[in-house]
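ok so I'm stuck.
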Amino acid sequence: MKIIFATGNQNKVRECHEILDGLGLSVISQKEAGLAPEVEENGTTFEENAMIKAKAVAGLAPEAIVIADDSGLEIDALNKEPGIYSARYMGEDTSYDIKNRNLLDRLKGVEEDKRTARFVCAIAVVMPGGESFTCTGTIEGYIGDEPMGENGFGYDPIFYVQPQGVSTAALSPEEKNAISHRGKAMRKMREELAKRLGEKA
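replied:
not stuck anymore, here's the structure
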């Protein structure tokens, strides 16, 4: 059985494939499946937006397991911005180098203990037949003074974690998957899928 991940981000597809390894499920992106649904992400939470995307793709591929995620960065000193608008912050076509620099500029002069932040990831799953569920994971950290690391993507270079004291972009993929918001949500998803498929998680 295959999973269609409602994303065009191959990094997310790779992370999903690594975490689901052993369940006998192949993971492909919606682009690889030849699907391009019109989706309006008008939910007010990460969970709602993830489910909107998953159901849009599931409507075009009812025989597959469809998953979608909605994730973002919440910065407490900025009233939890960019939040559910993380991907669209400053425009979807704006590079993350520019987005990250803007956030760092807005936090200039803010002490480290006030730079608390978290990544949130909600994953929605629609099974063949229409059953659906969501899983959510978070990782707490803080926004550093400068970008660090080459391994991550998105906001990873400015999001630092303890006790390592480095950004999530400076962690190896294995280290990041072990603690990341998406890793936590995907491991919960793996357990739920294993139950439904009668496999050992």
